[in-house]
Amino acid sequence: MLRKIKDDIYSVGVIDWHRKLFDELIPLPDGTSYNSYFIQGQEKNAIIDTVEPDFDQEFLDNLEQAGVEKVDYIISNHAEQDHSGTIPVLLEKYPEAEVLCSAKAKSMLLDLLELKEDQIRVVEDGETLDLGGKTLEFIDTPWVHWPETMSTYLQEENILFPCDFFGSHLATSDLYVEDEAEVFKAAKRYYAEIMMPFRKIIKKNLAKLEDYEIDMIAPSHGPIYDNPEMILDAYHDWVSDEVKPQVIVPYVSMHGSTDDLVNYFIDSLIDEGIKVKPFNLTDVDLGDLAISLVDASTVVFGSPTVLTGPHPAAVYAAYLANVLKPKTRYASIIGSYGWAGRMTDKLLDLMPNLKVELYDPVVAKGHGADEDYQEIDRLVAEIKTDLENL
Ligand code: FEO
């Protein structure tokens, strides 16, 4: 589908309405899009990012509809295949085109797409490209979410093309953000799943972008932000060191003991006026859990003991929390065991990246006795004190 953004600037990407998983890992409840942009200058033209290779014909059709007979530059902001994968097809159709990318992206494109070295030219941070009345500036914005990523800025129109950065997995017919709440949630999910581990570097990228006047952000997934403050403010909030007073409880129970303990814990928190959100790990969208980890102050895992260790569902959640590196400040574990085990130690060993203050875990033998529930009261009191002092 060809859609005009401004004179000589077009959206030429595709919508993937039905994709359910990304990387065979990340749930996509709302599908996604692979946005690509075509910019025609008075002398030269450029395509910014391409699309997932499954959609190559639709992409070529869009370019044909735009009347593109010759392509001068293909700008590859990011080497991941959902944006770069159609470059070989483009080069077959437009062999005169030159691929422009960061130095790190060049070696990645050579590895991933088997392009020829002389088809690629490295551009430097701050370098500009004059298309004739339209000037593109390349801005290094690394680690959003691979090391080679850069953004492209159209100076005359103040449009930022940041590829994944600020994007959202959201298939919609809206070219621009219309439902801000819907896009906010999709963008937060996207940040949670792939950007959060790089929070501190993203903070630096955001600071760098403050030198630019940005009237529009055109990412390579999801709708375009014609009111960029919305997503810029959200990112500033997500990458800040501030946490929100909320207790996240990812848990699993086998015979009901952990369930009883966790439910008592949740009810006690609610009685104390503390915001709490449980996630039953046997039936969870891990993206929802990741969203909650973006700014929650506290996470308390719940797990029974299986063969001396945590339940595998809790292992998966702990591994995920560890790789996502949330800014969570406090943590603990609630659980149960039958005869012996090192469930808590093994679970904690999986999360070295969580720089948290740990409350003493509460682990009951079988279904909890009175003293176990008193321990949960102690845990709730400690959480309450810390949240009041946030
Ligand atoms: Fe949308 Fe990192 O690719």
Automatic annotation (TrEMBL):
Pfam families the record matches: ODP (PF19583)
Any one GO molecular function term: electron transfer activity
Flavodoxin-like domain boundaries: 247-390
Highest rank taxon of the organism: Bacteria
InterPro entries: Flavodoxin/NO_synth, Flavoprotein-like_sf, Metallo-B-lactamas, ODP_dom, RibonucZ/Hydroxyglut_hydro, Rubredoxin-O_OxRdtase
Family indicated by similarity: In the N-terminal section; belongs to the zinc metallo-hydrolase group 3 family.
Cross-referenced PANTHER family: ANAEROBIC NITRIC OXIDE REDUCTASE FLAVORUBREDOXIN
Name of this chain's protein: Flavorubredoxin
Organism name: Halanaerobium congolense
